[in-house]
User: Which sequence fits this backbone?
Protein backbone atom coordinates (compact mmCIF):
# COMPACT_ATOMS: atom_id res chain seq x y z
CA UNK A 1 0.00 0.00 0.00
CA UNK A 2 2.17 2.78 -1.25
CA UNK A 3 -0.49 5.46 -0.83
CA UNK A 4 -0.99 4.93 2.92
CA UNK A 5 2.46 6.14 3.92
CA UNK A 6 1.59 9.63 2.66
CA UNK A 7 -1.73 9.82 4.48
CA UNK A 8 -0.27 11.05 7.77
CA UNK A 9 2.34 13.34 6.27
CA UNK A 10 2.37 16.82 7.76
CA UNK A 11 1.96 19.84 5.50
CA UNK A 12 4.85 22.24 5.09
CA UNK A 13 4.80 25.40 7.15
CA UNK A 14 3.82 27.59 4.17
CA UNK A 15 0.67 25.58 3.47
CA UNK A 16 -0.20 25.23 7.18
CA UNK A 17 -1.34 28.85 7.20
CA UNK A 18 -3.16 28.73 3.85
CA UNK A 19 -6.98 28.60 4.16
CA UNK A 20 -7.29 27.18 0.63
CA UNK A 21 -4.96 24.30 1.52
CA UNK A 22 -6.98 23.50 4.64
CA UNK A 23 -10.20 23.47 2.61
CA UNK A 24 -8.68 21.35 -0.17
CA UNK A 25 -7.33 18.81 2.31
CA UNK A 26 -10.67 18.67 4.14
CA UNK A 27 -12.56 18.10 0.89
CA UNK A 28 -10.04 15.42 -0.09
CA UNK A 29 -10.60 13.60 3.19
CA UNK A 30 -14.39 13.94 2.87
CA UNK A 31 -14.17 12.53 -0.63
CA UNK A 32 -12.97 9.25 0.81
CA UNK A 33 -15.58 8.88 3.59
CA UNK A 34 -17.94 10.79 5.89
CA UNK A 35 -16.44 12.51 8.92
CA UNK A 36 -17.90 14.07 12.02
CA UNK A 37 -16.85 17.69 12.57
CA UNK A 38 -14.64 16.92 15.55
CA UNK A 39 -13.10 13.92 13.83
CA UNK A 40 -12.20 15.94 10.71
CA UNK A 41 -10.81 18.79 12.81
CA UNK A 42 -8.51 16.35 14.62
CA UNK A 43 -7.35 14.83 11.31
CA UNK A 44 -6.52 18.25 9.87
CA UNK A 45 -4.70 19.35 13.01
CA UNK A 46 -2.65 16.14 12.98
CA UNK A 47 -1.57 17.11 9.48
CA UNK A 48 -0.20 20.37 10.89
CA UNK A 49 -2.83 22.94 9.93
CA UNK A 50 -3.45 25.83 12.31
CA UNK A 51 -6.49 25.24 14.52
CA UNK A 52 -8.04 28.65 13.78
CA UNK A 53 -7.94 27.97 10.03
CA UNK A 54 -9.30 24.47 10.56
CA UNK A 55 -12.26 25.82 12.55
CA UNK A 56 -12.97 28.42 9.87
CA UNK A 57 -12.79 25.89 7.02
CA UNK A 58 -15.03 23.41 8.84
CA UNK A 59 -17.55 26.13 9.58
CA UNK A 60 -17.70 26.98 5.86
CA UNK A 61 -18.03 23.33 4.85
CA UNK A 62 -20.79 22.78 7.39
CA UNK A 63 -22.60 25.87 6.11
CA UNK A 64 -22.40 24.50 2.56
CA UNK A 65 -23.73 21.12 3.69
CA UNK A 66 -20.54 19.28 2.75
CA UNK A 67 -19.84 18.43 6.39
CA UNK A 68 -22.87 17.27 8.36
CA UNK A 69 -22.86 15.50 11.72
CA UNK A 70 -26.45 14.28 11.28
CA UNK A 71 -25.58 12.60 7.99
CA UNK A 72 -22.44 11.11 9.52
CA UNK A 73 -24.42 9.79 12.49
CA UNK A 74 -27.05 8.15 10.27
CA UNK A 75 -24.35 6.62 8.09
CA UNK A 76 -22.36 5.20 11.00
CA UNK A 77 -25.45 3.81 12.74
CA UNK A 78 -26.58 2.15 9.50
CA UNK A 79 -23.10 0.67 8.98
CA UNK A 80 -22.77 -0.70 12.52
CA UNK A 81 -26.31 -2.08 12.62
CA UNK A 82 -25.57 -3.81 9.32
CA UNK A 83 -22.59 -5.48 11.01
CA UNK A 84 -24.82 -6.64 13.86
CA UNK A 85 -23.52 -4.27 16.53
CA UNK A 86 -25.80 -3.47 19.47
CA UNK A 87 -26.69 -0.10 20.99
CA UNK A 88 -23.80 0.00 23.47
CA UNK A 89 -21.24 -0.49 20.69
CA UNK A 90 -22.97 2.07 18.45
CA UNK A 91 -23.12 4.59 21.30
CA UNK A 92 -19.41 4.14 21.97
CA UNK A 93 -18.48 4.66 18.31
CA UNK A 94 -20.59 7.82 18.11
CA UNK A 95 -19.11 9.21 21.33
CA UNK A 96 -15.59 8.58 20.02
CA UNK A 97 -16.47 10.51 16.85
CA UNK A 98 -17.56 13.50 18.94
CA UNK A 99 -21.29 13.30 18.32
CA UNK A 100 -23.42 15.09 20.93
CA UNK A 101 -25.42 13.13 23.49
CA UNK A 102 -28.72 14.44 22.09
CA UNK A 103 -27.87 13.27 18.59
CA UNK A 104 -26.80 9.88 19.93
CA UNK A 105 -30.09 9.47 21.79
CA UNK A 106 -32.08 10.24 18.65
CA UNK A 107 -29.93 7.92 16.52
CA UNK A 108 -30.36 4.99 18.93
CA UNK A 109 -34.15 5.27 18.83
CA UNK A 110 -34.31 4.16 15.20
CA UNK A 111 -33.28 0.50 14.98
CA UNK A 112 -35.27 -2.39 16.47
CA UNK A 113 -32.53 -3.63 18.78
CA UNK A 114 -34.58 -6.61 20.01
CA UNK A 115 -35.04 -7.92 16.47
CA UNK A 116 -31.41 -7.22 15.58
CA UNK A 117 -30.20 -9.20 18.61
CA UNK A 118 -32.40 -12.14 17.60
CA UNK A 119 -31.16 -11.96 14.00
CA UNK A 120 -27.50 -11.78 15.05
CA UNK A 121 -27.96 -14.75 17.40
CA UNK A 122 -29.64 -16.78 14.69
CA UNK A 123 -26.96 -15.97 12.07
CA UNK A 124 -24.19 -17.04 14.43
CA UNK A 125 -25.76 -20.03 16.18
CA UNK A 126 -28.65 -21.13 13.97
CA UNK A 127 -32.35 -21.22 14.68
CA UNK A 128 -32.19 -23.91 17.39
CA UNK A 129 -32.34 -22.51 20.91
CA UNK A 130 -29.48 -23.47 23.24
CA UNK A 131 -30.07 -26.81 24.99
CA UNK A 132 -27.62 -26.45 27.87
CA UNK A 133 -26.42 -23.76 30.23
CA UNK A 134 -22.92 -23.64 28.69
CA UNK A 135 -24.44 -23.07 25.24
CA UNK A 136 -26.78 -20.43 26.57
CA UNK A 137 -24.01 -18.59 28.41
CA UNK A 138 -21.78 -18.70 25.31
CA UNK A 139 -24.54 -17.10 23.24
CA UNK A 140 -25.21 -14.53 25.95
CA UNK A 141 -21.53 -13.55 26.09
CA UNK A 142 -21.43 -13.23 22.31
CA UNK A 143 -24.43 -10.89 22.25
CA UNK A 144 -23.09 -8.92 25.20
CA UNK A 145 -19.77 -8.46 23.39
CA UNK A 146 -21.70 -7.18 20.38
CA UNK A 147 -23.19 -4.45 22.57
CA UNK A 148 -26.69 -5.70 23.34
CA UNK A 149 -28.35 -5.09 26.71
CA UNK A 150 -29.54 -7.85 29.03
CA UNK A 151 -33.14 -7.27 27.95
CA UNK A 152 -32.22 -7.64 24.28
CA UNK A 153 -30.25 -10.79 25.04
CA UNK A 154 -33.10 -12.33 27.04
CA UNK A 155 -35.51 -11.59 24.21
CA UNK A 156 -33.14 -13.02 21.61
CA UNK A 157 -32.73 -16.20 23.61
CA UNK A 158 -36.43 -16.33 24.50
CA UNK A 159 -35.31 -16.95 28.07
CA UNK A 160 -38.67 -18.01 29.54
CA UNK A 161 -39.03 -21.05 27.28
CA UNK A 162 -35.35 -21.93 27.57
CA UNK A 163 -35.36 -21.76 31.37
CA UNK A 164 -38.36 -24.12 31.54
CA UNK A 165 -36.74 -26.59 29.13
CA UNK A 166 -33.50 -26.59 31.12
CA UNK A 167 -35.34 -26.99 34.43
CA UNK A 168 -37.25 -29.99 33.06
CA UNK A 169 -34.05 -31.61 31.74
CA UNK A 170 -32.27 -31.61 35.11
Assistant:
Amino acid sequence: MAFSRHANRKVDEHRAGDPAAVRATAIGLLGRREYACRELAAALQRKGFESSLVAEALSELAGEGVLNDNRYTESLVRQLVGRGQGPARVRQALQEAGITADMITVALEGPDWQQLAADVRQRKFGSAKPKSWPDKSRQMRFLQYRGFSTDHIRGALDSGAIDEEMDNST
About this structure: The chain has three domains: 2-67, 70-108, 113-169.
